[in-house]
Amino acid sequence: MKPVNWKKIFASSIWVTVAWVVGLIVVWEIGATIVAGVKRTPENVLPHLYQIIGSVFSTQKVNSSQTAIQLVLSNAWVTLARAGIGFMLGASIGFLLALLMSRFVAVEKMLFPYLMIIQMIPILGMAPIVLAITKNIDKSRIVIAAILTFYPVATNTLSGFKAVEKEKRELMYSYAASRFDIYRKLLIPYCIPYLFTGLKIAAPMAITASILVDTLQGGGGLGCMMSQSLKHAMTIYVFWQIVFLSAIIGILSYQLMVWLEKLVSPYPKELKNGGTGKAKELEA
Amino acid sequence: MQAIRKLPETDAVVNDGVEIKIENMSVRFSDRTGGGAIDALTNVSLDIRQGEFVSLVGPSGCGKTTLLRAIADLQEPTSGSITVRGQTPREIRLQKKFGIVFQNPVLYDWRTARRNVCMPMELMGIPKQQRTATVSEMLDMVNLQGFGFKYPHQLSGGMQQRVGIARALAIKPEILLMDEPFSALDEFTKEKLNEELLSIWSKAKKTIVFVTHNISESVFLSDRVVVLSPHPGRISAIVDITLPRPRHLAVKDTPEFSALVSKVRNSFEGV
């Protein structure tokens, strides 16, 4: 019989995940029990996990027309649409800025410090200003998501452009390659992993920021419902459903970027399955 | 093509078969920290004939790479002049007549071997069908049949360097400039590639300028070995290599070979 390698089993990442999940459930339930014992509020602010799961399937309407989960999902769509548009806008602007900064040192010197300052303004401070300028809830949320996105995308992409080895550039130079070709055949393919590093940081951030700004102002969205729920205008289960859904959306947005990178990255996959004649290679 | 073909004939008459003419060239690097400037090369004069295999050999800091880079228009001379076929290096570079092989293979990791060899032809706008044919021809020449669809990280160092050579030859350059191309390889691979390079050279009949710090390698490959010495960088001797061609590795065991190696070694000054 093979001896059980406990060391290996405990070192594997699955067990780490299991340990975390079990630990969190235990802490949560202890907390929920204590809070339930205090019971100062009309509704238990920290319900048991089974109650939250139960509320997802509840058919009881929380407003005139929707159940809790219907309300959450319809608002999630509003938030996601804003965050998504803002993210794409911000990513495009970030990439274009990185292109400009890599092309013109003067632009980099001029822009870079100020881009950083924009990042230092707290979102909550920026939100009313942006709303005052755009005069539209939807637009202002899109702009906020875009502002949060463009910086990690721009800085990471720029560092990718800068990381290109001197000899790789000189090779292009020795063939008298046009600037367009240098970008198309060297710089842009080279910086794609860097670009995706930026996108992976930015995607969950755009969503979190969108939710956060929702809490400040009306106009629907997950954050808006969250704050209403917290103020007991609506059942507390809406709040908790949103908390869990936001976490899931955040993780999925990151995963989406991972998947997208695999799809568009020109780099070969891992050594084991690389070099097995793909469509791209037929070009040569 | 016709118009281009005519040019070398007239050049040959004017320059007497000299392809690269370097006259009193100096390169001085100013020290950024404010200290004294460094004379990488001082008053270098050298004529390289068409179809000739010339090695630049010397210890680190002798300016051999700087000399190659100046020919390739990667380094501006501080004074003096370089003409290639009666034109400036820049004009020759813009006509894409240089093939350069660097010390590192400098392959693009996201392209397969075939697509790396293909890259310069894409830049030149050569039609796809012709590119495909040339890529196969070049990979055959460097003995990499069957490795075309591998990515650089799947190839050994020697194979990567061969891809680099195939890429340099793919655009049929007039002049091949090689900067210590085999210095990172083990001795066995290096000798094998030396022999292969000679066979490629005899087929392709390019002018080759080859930088190395390996004396034996330079003697084995070259028609002439240009010995450079450091502080300041200068040419201290030019040794004619009279060994018969075609050469094979066995030539290294002959007394003539050893005598030439000693001659080159004894030409260094101030090392």
Q: What is the SS-derived class of chain A?
A: mainly alpha
Which superfamily, in CATH terms, is the homologous superfamily of chain A?
Answer: MetI-like
Give the second-level CATH assignment, the architecture of chain A.
Answer: Orthogonal Bundle
Counted beta strands of chain A: 0
- Counting structural domains of chain A, the number is 1
Q: How much helical structure, as a percent, in the residues of chain A? A: over 70%
**Residue-averaged pLDDT of chain B:** 87
Radius of gyration of chain B: 19 Å
What's the architecture of the largest domain in chain B in CATH terms? 3-Layer(aba) Sandwich
Identify the notable features of this structure and list them briefly:
heterodimer, A: 284 residues, mainly alpha, MetI-like fold, 11 helices, 0% strand, globular, disordered C terminus, B: 271 residues, alpha/beta, Rossmann fold, 2 domains, three-stranded antiparallel sheet, 9 helices, 9 strands, disordered N terminus
Summarize it.
Chain A is an all-alpha fold.
Can you tell me about this structure?
- The complex is a heterodimer of chains A (284) and B (271).
- Chain A contains eleven helices and no strands.
- With 284 residues, chain A is mostly helical.
- Chain A has one domain (52-266): Orthogonal Bundle (MetI-like fold), CATH 1.10.3720.
- The radius of gyration of chain A is 24 Å and the shape is globular.
- Chain A starts with 5 loop residues before the first helix and ends in a 20-residue tail after the last helix.
- Chain B is an alpha/beta fold.
- Chain B has two domains: 1-85 and 173-182 and 189-271, P-loop containing nucleotide triphosphate hydrolases (Rossmann fold, 3-Layer(aba) Sandwich), CATH 3.40.50.300; 98-172, no CATH class.
- Helix content of chain B is 38%, strand content 23%.
- In chain B, the strands form two sheets. Chain B has a six-stranded mixed beta sheet, with helices on both faces.
- The model of chain B is unreliable at 1-14 (pLDDT under 50).
- Classes of the chains: A mainly alpha (284), B alpha/beta (271).
- Chain A binds chain B through residues 165, 167-168, 170-178, 181, 185-186, 189-190, 265-268, 271, 274-277, 281, 283-284, and chain B through 72-74, 93-96, 98, 100, 102, 104, 106, 108-112, 114-115, 117-120, 122-124, 128, 131-132, 135, 148-151, 153-154, 171.
